Amino acid sequence: MIDSMINYFINTPHLLRHAYQRLKSQWMWLVIPFIVSILVLLIMVLIFKMNGTEEIKQARGFFRLAAVMSFAYIWIAIYQSYNTFKHDYFTGKLFNLNPIFQNIIIALLFSVIMYISLIMIILATPVNIESSMLSTLFFVAMSLVFMVVISTLLGLIAIVSNKVNIIYYVVSVVMFFIVPIIFIPNTNTTLVSHILMLNPLYYLIEGISQSVVLGTLSLNNIPHHIYFLLFLALLCVVIYALYRCIAHKKYSYVNTNKQQVKRQMSDNLENKAEINK
E-assigned strands of the chain? Predict the structure, then answer.
């Protein structure tokens, strides 16, 4: 294990150059969402100013904007990460390197851009709307961990299955409708809100949106923070098991191929011996 860690740090500069070249060809996935979010924010602020919209309605609008924006950044980051994981898994094994490094870099970049976008929303909110940059930073950091774990899990599944993209699209559509973007629970639907918060993505989206318009109120729900961390820990156990399962399958596949080659060689030798006779 110590040798692996030393090898990992020695090869970190090469990994950074590789990540830079990979992301340079995918810069549009970072730039376009950022530009779109800024344009939507400017249009929303302009409409609020022209119509003299009440601050309560403005808060609801900024809540939805923060929710849509964070959902989009998380979705794109996970999609980009798990689609490159399979290639990095096989190439990284040649140098005894872990492909999770690429997922961490992608998640870190998207988290930084997402945080900048959310700060711009906070600066655009009315004075009477409470916002918290520290609370927003907390949930962005949680989103970073979530993106790394989910993209790694999907990347490992993609190695043994070709249907990950279809599953991801379907689940993403379902998630869009059960996170607080279109449906925002009110005080009369507290039970529904707690049930929906069993979904870790709901926890993140609601936490980010509340941080933008309600300040540190989103940090008060300690049990859900603990549940979210335990859920990620469970997924890490699944990832560990998948790593071992894939390694075992690969080892079995190599041994099977070797045995087939040996049988073919022995058959060829027997055929040649019979021809010589």
Answer: none
Task: Look at the chain and count its residues.
Answer: 277
**Of 95, 66, 134, nearest in space to 8 by CA:** 95
- Tokens 């990950």 locate to 164
Give residue 54's region: left, alpha or beta (phi > 0; psi -120 to 50).
beta
Terminal Cα distance for the chain, rounded: 56
State how far the Cα of 123 lies from the Cα of 112, in Å rounded to an integer.
17
Q: What is the phi/psi pair of residue 130, to 5°?
A: -80, 135
CA gap 77, 132 in Å, rounded: 24
Beta-bridge partner residues of 214? 130
Q: Which two structure tokens, joined as six digits, stand for 248?
A: 């075992």
List, in sequence order, every residue forming a beta bridge with 130; answer none if it has no partner: 214
Measure the CA angle with vertex 218, ends 113 and 239; round to 5°: 65
Phi, then psi, of 55 in degrees rounded to 5? -65, -30
Which residues have a Cβ under 8 Å from the Cβ of 91 and sit 6 or more positions away?
Answer: none
Burial status of residue 184 (CB atoms within 10 A of its CB: 0-12, 13-18, 19 or more): middle
Which pTM value belongs to this model? Answer: 0.81
Over 50: is that where the pLDDT of 97 sits? yes
Which among 61, 85, 30, 219 has a CA at the least distance from the CA of 142?
219
CA distance 212 to 66: 7
State which amino acid sits at residue 271.
N
pLDDT per position as a tens digit, 63-94: 999 999 999 999 999 998 888 887 777 666 55
Q: How far apart are CA 252 and CA 263, in angstroms?
A: 16
Separation CA 211–CA 138 (nearest Å): 9
